[in-house]
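Standup notes, structure subgroup. Blocker cleared on the zinc ion input:
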Amino acid sequence: MGKKIFEKIKIKKKFAEKKFAKNWKKNKIGKMSDFEFRRRHTASHILAAAVKMIFPEILRGAGPATDAGFFQDFDFVGVKISSDDFKKIEKKMRWIANKNFRVVQKFLNLRDAEKFFKNKKFKLEILHDLENSGEKKFSFFDFVDDSGKIFYRDLCAGPHLLSTGEVGVFKLMKISAAFFRGDETREILTRIFGVAFSEKKFLDEFLQNLEEAKKRDHRKLGRELDLFCFSEKVGPGLPLFSPRGTFILETLKKKVEKICRKFGFQKISTPHFAKIDLYKISGHAEKFSGELFKVDGHYKTKYCVKPVQCPHHTQIFASKMRSHKDLPIRYMESEKQYRDEKPGQIGGLGRVIAITVEDGHIFCTPEQIEIECKNLVKIIREFYDSLGMWGNHWVSLSTRDKKNFKKYIGKKSDWEKAEKFLEKICVDEKLDAKKMPGEAALYGPKIDFMFRDAIGNERQLATIQLDFATPQRFELEYIDKNGEKKIPVMIHRAILGSYERFLAILIEHFAGNFPLFLSPTQLAILPITKKHENFAQKILEKIQKSGGRAEIFSADETLGKRILNFQKQKIPLAAILGDAEISENFLSIRARGSKKMQKFSLEKLIEKLTKN
Ligand SMILES: [Zn+2]
Ligand SMILES: [Zn+2]
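Run returned:
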C-alpha cells in the first residue's frame, strides 16, 4: 500500500478536521467533531449516485463538502435539468440513505482506476493529475451493500461517514453553472448544491435563516433605502453612493478617525496611483499581477492604480531621517484603491473594483509592539462597542510554523518577541484567542477578529498584522538610542476592512434598522393635517440647526399611509404633530417598530438626536 497516499490522506483529513474546527465556532449547531464535515461529504457522493441512477450517461466533475453544505458538478451530456428535478433526485438520495450502504475506502492501481473511468474524461484527467504528482495507488470510496456488492464508486480522498444511513436530513438547494476545475477556459458543468443536517429541526433553522438573509440582503435594502446604486454606464463593481449612503460612510469614517486620533493616529493622504516600480519593491506587482490596473502616461512613465496603500505610507516615513524618539509613527488613510476583479466574482458591495479601505500603519521599534497592539485592540473594541457588535466575535492568533522557520521573512528573535507580545495582549485583553500555529503571514504574526452578524454569518473584519518584511524591502530606518541605524517594524491595522463591504455587513446585521447616530434621517415629522405644517417646518429648522436630521412627511397623504412609509424607510423616530402638541408645546414621539407614543420636549429630543 502506498505510504505516500496514506500520508496525503492523513494530511487532507487533518486539514478537513482543522477546517471544521475553524468553522465550528460559527456553527451553532452540532457537536465539535469532524462528523458534520463527513456528513456533507458523504451527502455529496449520495447526490452523485442518485443522479447517476436517473441519468446513467452523466459525467461527474468534483463534489466536495463546503462550509455551508456540499455540491457536485455534472455534465448532463445534452439533458436539460433544473430545480424541478430536485424532488426526483432527493427521492433517490433518500432511497440510497435508507439502504444504509457501508462506505468503504479502496485503493486501486492506475490500470484498474483507468479501466473504471473508461470514457469519463473529467475523472480521467483528475486521475492523471494525481498520477503526475507521483501517486501509484488511488483512493476510492465505495457504497457497498450487505452482500459485498459495490453500488457506487468514486475517486476520493475522504473522509466519509461509515454508512449512507448516517447522513441524516438533506435538501437540494440550487443549481448553477460552474467551470470544470474553476477554470474559465474549460467546460461548463452543472453544479447542484445541497445541505445536510443531523435533524430536521436544524434544517428548518437553516431554511429560516436563509429566508431572513434574503430579507436582509444588502443589495435589496440598499435599493429600498436609497443608499447606493450601480450604473451600467459607469461599470460593474463601481458603486455609486447616494447622499444617504454617503452619510453613513462619512459617519463611520469620522467615528474611526475620532477613536484612532485618541491613540495618536494622524491622517495622511496619498495619490490613487503610483509608478509601477513602487509595487515591484513591495511585492504587490507580483502578488496582485492579475488584478493591477496599469496606466500609461503620455510621457513614458508607467503607472499603476494602487491596489493597496501600504507602499505609499512607507514613503512618507522615509521622507526624512527618523530617530527612535519619533517612533511610533501612526498613519491612517481612508482612500479608494482598485483591483481588477474577475467579472463573475463582482456582486453587490461584497466584492467591488473600487474599494475604500480604512487603512492604518504603525512604524515602531520592536519594544513598542506590545503597547501599540494593545492600543489597537482598544480601538477595535471601542469601535465595535459603539455599534453594539463587541461580544459577537472571536479572535484568532496566527503564529509561525516553528518547524519551518526558513519560509518566513524577518529575524527569529523578532518573531519570538512579537509572538510573545501578541499572546500576552490576547491574555491581558481577555480576547480568548484561538491559537493558529502555522497560519501567520510570511512577513509576520497577526491577530484577526471574526464578527458574527445577527443571522449568524461570520466575517473577518478587524486585523492587526505585524510586518518585518516591508520595512526591509523599502530600506526604512531609524536611529536608535546608541546612534545605530535600525529597521522599524510595520504594523498594518484594519478596524473595519473596506467601507463598501462593511456597509453591506451593517445593512444585513441591522436589517436596515440603523442606530440613531448612523441613520441618514433620524426623525420623520408627521403633521396631522395641513394646518400643522407651519409648526412642523419650525421644528424641522430647529432640529437641523442643532445638527439633527429630520424630514417632514407632508399631510398630503393620510396619516396611516405616512406612518407606514416612515416604517418602510426604517427611520428610527417619528414625531406626530397635532393641536395638543402645538398648544402644550411637546412632541409625541413614536419609535420604529413600536406603537407606543412618548412625550418629549424639543430640547430633550434634540439632545437624543445629536448624541455621538
Ligand atoms: Zn469525495
Ligand atoms: Zn498595509
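Discussed briefly. The longest strand covers residues 169-179.
Next: hand off to the docking folks.
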